[in-house]
Request: fold
Amino acid sequence: MIFRKSILFLTGLFMGRLFAQESPDTALFRELGVHKMTVYVKLPLLKHKSVNDSCRTEEYKWNDKRQLIYDYQNNQCYGWRGLTENHHEFDPSGKLLKTKQLKDGENLTIRYTHNQHGDLERIVQYNESGSDSFVTHNLYMYDKKSRIAEQRSLNIYHLDTNVVLMKFLYDDAGNVKEITTYGNDGKPVQKQTYDITPKSRKLLEFSTQTYAPKNSFTKGWNYYDFDARLFKTQYSNNTWTEYYYKENGLLDQSHFYNMEGNLSTVKIYVYEF
Reply:
């Protein structure tokens, strides 16, 4: 369990840097002065819910420097467990310094230390009493272009420790095209691939091959309209998501269709400026 959590946590933290760019949404948020986005979800397929019922499932807040200072995730809207709120603090140079987290009723603090390249070197997570902690130490190897070639992470939780090794490959345009994750025994656990356009840096195709603990493979394709906006994501399991936009270009709704072709989830996006 600790190993699986480590992969998810580390992958999420570092994808932003590896795909470093100002996406159209980020640029548009800046142009329009978006400071808050709330996401409501409707589940038309649930018999006890009508299409008009909705639940606040996500919320994000940014400061004037476009730094994400608050995020909220409520998986209970889908009938699952999990309610998380994060308050983020940054140092004067803009690096993430600390996160105060409320997760399923438990108060946690996460502190971050960065190396000279700006990458996360040490992550310490502990609860309010200080009796329970999770520590990650990261060691990087860089290529000649100062890109991350390898990241070795030592994760410590109580008496349990594990090492996660992630290796990165890049295409000719400098975009990440492959990430392979290895376990303590040196065997691959997961491989992720990405096909990204050279100039506009649009993600066209992506896949995840998982080797352990169970073998699985998923693949997806993104499709864009004439305004370079994502309008559909198709998945290899015959599910897909369609995206709809407001007149100002901001995302208005996303519709997820299940394997039977039925509309199963509707997300509605509300903004404050």
